[in-house]
Structures are given as C-alpha cells and as structure tokens.
Design brief:
Blueprint (H helix, E strand, L loop, with lengths): L1 H17 L6 E8 L4 E3 L5 E8 L5 E12 L3 E3 L9 E10 L3 E12 L4 E13 L3 E8 L4 E4 L3 E9 L5 E8 L8 E3 L4 E2 L3 E10 L3 E12 L5 E14 L7 E8 L4 E4 L3 E9 L5 E12 L2 E4 L4 E2 L3 E12 L2 E12 L5 E14 L6 E8 L4 E4 L4 E8 L5 E9 L2 E2 L3 E3 L4 E2 L3 E10 L3 E12 L4 E14 L15 E3 L6 E5 L6 E6 L5 E7 L3 E5 L6 E9 L2 E9 L1
Parallel strand pairs: 2-8, 10-17, 19-26, 28-36
Antiparallel strand pairs: 1-3, 3-6, 4-7, 5-6, 7-8, 9-11, 11-15, 12-14, 12-16, 13-15, 16-17, 18-20, 20-24, 21-23, 21-25, 22-24, 25-26, 27-29, 29-34, 30-31, 30-33, 30-35, 32-34, 35-36, 37-38, 38-41, 39-40, 39-42, 42-43
Length: 544
C-alpha cells in the first residue's frame, strides 16, 4: 500500500514538473517589414509566430522593448490560445522616434499570471520629429486679454527631409477657434531653431500648443507634438487667482482619531478657464498616510467649494494645508495658497489639559525678589510634540518683568512638568496662565489658575549685616558705584548674577577692596557671588 502511494506521488510530481518552461516556446517569428528596418512614425510592424504550450488556455502578449526615443508604443492584444501548438499574429508601432532592440513574448493564464516569457532580438528605428527648448513670451501660465499674442521660439530635430512645422493653440479637446497663428517656412536642416506666434480673439483657455510636422511637398501630416501650457484669454479686468474664507470643520486646533475627516469650505477666484483645486495636508511628523476628496472641474470664475476633505490613516500631526489651483488639462500650477493648522491624528482621544498644579510656596504668599515661585503640574495631549508656557496675570493682563525656566518640549502623551516664576522688582499677580502650544507656536489649549502672590524686596536684617569674617558690599542699595571688601586676604573673584542665573558682570581683584561701576546695570535685585580662600559667599545686591 505504501509502495503504491509513493508511485502515485512520484507520478503527480512528474506531471507537475512536466508543465514547466520547456513546454512553452515561441519560434519562426516573421516580421513585416523584416528587421532591421527604419520606419516613419505610426507605421505598423506586423509579425507572425509559432507557439507551443502545456495544457490550459493562455494568452500571448508581444510587446516591443524600447531603448531610446520620444515615441509611445501601441500594440495588439491577444486572443485566447486553446491549442497546445499553433500560430499567432500581432503588431506594434510608435507614434514618434524610437529605437527597438527586442520583442518580449509573455505567456499568461486567464487570471493574468505570468507562465513564461522570452525575447526575440530585433533592430527597428522609428524616425524622430521633436520640439525642444520651447520659450514663451509671456511665460506660461498667464491671463491675457482678447487679441493678445503669445510669441515663442523653439529648437527642432527632424529626419533628412523638407518639412513644415505648423503651430496651433489647443484647448482641452480641440483646436481653439478665433485664433491666428504663424505660417511655417520650409525646414530642411536636421536640427535647427524656429519662431512663431498665436493670437486669440475670444474667450479661450490654451492648455497646450500643437506642433504639426507636415511633408512640405504633399502637406500630409506625419506626426504631432504637444507642449502643455496655460494661457487664459478674456475681457475680465480682474485676472487674479485666489483662495479665501477657508473654514475647517472641525476647527483648528483639533484632536482627531485616525480616519476622521476634516471638511473644508473655501471661496475661489480665477480668470476664464477650467481648473481643478487640490488640497494637500502637510504632515510634520507621524507614520500615517492621507487621503483627500480629489477635485472636480471648476468652470465659474468666482465661486465656493464644498465637499472637500482630507483624512489620515495612522498617527500624524498636520500643521499646514496647501491649496493648489491647477489647469484642468496638463496640471500646470496656477496659484498656491497655504493655511497654518494643527490637527493631531492618533488612535486615541486624549485631550489637551493642565491639571494638579502644586505651588511652592502655596498661595497666598509673599515672596522676596531674591527667591522664586516654583510649581509642578500634570499635562496630557494627543499625538505630537508640544511646549507649555506659564505666565503671571494681573487683572486679566500679562504681568511683564517676570522670568521663568527654559521652555521644554514635551513628547510623552501624559506626564509631569515643572517651571518657576521670579521677579527682580516688586510685583503682584492674581492668576497664572498656562498655554499649550505647538512647536510652530500655535495655541492649542489655555487655562487659568487663580493665585495670590506678592514679590517684595527683602528687608535689610541681621542676616544681611556683614560680620568680621565675611565679605561686605556697600552702599546698599547701590546707584553708580559699588564697593566689595573682603577681610584679611588679598585677591578675590566676583560675579553679579541676575535672578535667572545669568552672569551680568564678573572680574578679579588683586587687593581686598574693589570699587565697581554699576550704573550700566538695570535697576533691580541681583546676587553678588564672591570667592576667596576656597570659600564662596552670596550677597544680596539692590541697584537703584
């Protein structure tokens, strides 16, 4: 029994292996015209071939292999081949210059799966007719008046024959009426340059310029070459493009769950001519990919757009949306407008928040200007980096003159932050405003915490009275000049530091007494740091 099973298995494997590449073949390929050959654009190359295949219905596609040239290929499709051996026929051609070095035969099953391919070497050359280096005056895109002319220069390359090169302004689908275009001389050189113009005497949009290469002796069209442009002709005095009154729903800033749509409405203005208006949400970070609603054709010169939207699949931080007005044919950019936004896409709905604010010292308190008000807080945010700013408020307005810690970028979705507020001068405030901003300084969230704090100058007391073994500074407060005196040594270092820790002035004295000019230092409270004999002392300094 086991032996029979083994034999059956081997027979199956042998049968499966039999339907291999050796059972597929192409032979006896005959080309008309035969290779090698030089052809005019659009001239067909017909060919026949014999084939062999394993069991099963297939199609055999024959495609030319181009190694150079400007032309595009057209080729025959394939019938369904059911016989295991037989003959087939096909063709291909190019609409302009091309160099062909092979024909690829591909055997595919009815589902399109590739079963076998082989290449037959050939040598076919299609003659090339080309326009290069087109320069327009005025440049494209431009909005023009009825009767205005567009002039141009160009370079050309042609085979060794006499030709006419006839330009014509083209709309989306056809030659534009009410136009006058330049006549053509006879071009005989294989490479050279030419000039031309066209003028439109009515409403029109020129989406491209068609250059026809005509046989000079028969006026027969050999090939056409198109250059995409955009010129709008009208009698409207207002020929500007604009995007305005952009409204996002939900409004920016917003926290979004992936796949949520941001709907957009806007007003647009344009001269005559059909356009498309595309939106492009610009992602500053994240791994998501966006989808948009695309664009219909806008024909009215002024109007409003609705049913416009975008969404993101995955995490993303969108901080800009770009609007692009493009020609309906050719996609030439006519106008670009951008809006700064903040849409945070993530897989959760964590809101922006500041909570659990703890002050040290607690409110209400009176704080000396040499000290600081420290505080911690909890924060939460959706996807994207943020910065948190805490500022003192008095009677609803920002209290100027405060200093605080360096701005920190917060990356975690939730966490604990810290900061401080200090004043070098007398001040009081009744609220602290917390603002969460994007890294591009867009306000995302704001909250106010009621407090009651007063900053005052520290009174001169026994703890500030100098003793015999400590340095002294005088007068206090200082105005124009300050004296530092240290006991019993020669030489010391000093620094004057503001309450943010910034060194304002520093120096060295070779004696035990030094007079310092301080009239250039702003009025306020400072700390004087004095170092000598391996000891460092900090002394309060008030400058008035």
């Amino acid at each position: 029994m086991k032996l029979n099973l083994l034999i059956i298995t081997l027979i199956f494997l042998f049968s499966a292996a039999a339907a291999s590449a050796q059972d597929y073949s192409v032979s006896n390929v005959v080309f008309d015209p035969p290779s090698p050959a030089t052809l005019m654009p659009n001239e067909r190359i017909n060919f026949t071939f014999d084939y062999a295949k394993a069991g099963g219905d297939i199609r055999i596609f024959a495609r030319s292999v181009k190694i150079a040239g400007v032309g595009n290929a057209s080729s025959a499709g394939s019938p369904l081949y059911t016989e295991n051996v037989g003959s087939g026929n096909a063709y291909f051609f190019y609409n302009n210059g091309a160099t062909i070095n092979g024909v690829l035969f591909s055997f595919k099953d009815v589902d399109g799966t590739l079963l076998y391919d082989t290449t037959v070497v050939v040598d076919f050359t299609y003659l090339e007719f080309n326009i290069t280096d087109l320069e327009l005056s005025p440049e494209s895109p431009t909005a023009l008046n009825f009767g205005d002319s567009v002039k141009f220069t160009f370079n050309y390359s042609i085979p060794d024959m006499d030709l006419l090169i006839v330009p014509m302004a083209y709309g989306i689908n056809d030659v534009i009426q009410n136009q006058i275009s330049s006549a053509s001389p006879v071009y005989s050189d294989t490479i050279g340059s030419g000039t031309g113009f066209f003028r439109i005497d009515g409403l029109a949009t020129v989406d491209k310029i068609r250059f026809q290469f005509l046989d000079a002796s028969t006026n027969d069209t050999i090939v056409e070459v198109f250059w995409y442009t955009y010129f709008s002709f009208s009698n409207d005095s207002n020929k500007t493009y604009s995007i305005s009154n952009v409204i996002f729903d939900p409004a920016s800033p917003s926290s979004m769950v992936e796949n949520d749509k941001v709907n957009i409405t806007f007003d647009y203005q344009k001269p005559y001519g059909d356009v498309r208006i595309y939106i492009d949400p610009v992602k500053s970070s994240g791994s998501g990919n966006y989808g948009t609603s695309g664009s219909p054709i806008y024909s009215e010169n002024n109007g409003s757009a609705t049913d416009v939207n975008f969404t993101y699949f995955g995490e993303a931080l969108v901080e800009k949306v770009i609007f692009r007005i493009q020609s309906a044919s050719g996609g030439i950019l006519l106008h670009e407008h951008s809006e700064d936004v903040h849409f945070s896409y993530s897989q959760n709905t964590i809101p922006y928040s500041i909570t659990n604010v703890v002050f040290n010292p607690p409110s209400p308190s009176t704080i000396h200007t040499v000290d600081t008000l420290k505080f911690t807080f909890d924060y939460s945010k959706p996807y994207g980096n943020i910065k948190i700013f805490a500022r003192p408020i008095k009677d609803g307005s920002l209290k100027l003159g405060s200093t605080s810690g360096s701005v920190i970028t917060y990356t975690d979705s939730t966490g604990i932050g810290s900061d401080y507020i200090s004043f070098a001068d007398v001040a009081s405030f009744d609220q602290i405003r917390f603002q969460i901003k994007s890294t591009l300084n867009q306000l995302l969230y704001e909250t106010f915490v009621d407090v009651d704090y007063d900053f005052i100058f520290r009174p001169v007391s026994a703890e500030l009275v100098e003793t015999d073994n400590q340095p002294s500074i005088y007068p206090m407060p200082a105005t124009n000049e300050l004296t530092i005196s240290v006991p019993g040594v020669k030489g010391f270092d000093y620094s004057i530091v503001n309450l943010s820790g910034q060194v304002i002035q520093k120096g060295f004295s070779e004696s035990n007494t030094l007079k310092i000019n301080v009239n250039h230092i702003h009025r306020g409270t400072y700390i004087t740091q004095i170092k000598y004999a391996d000891q460092q002392y900090s002394k309060l300094l008030i400058i008035e």
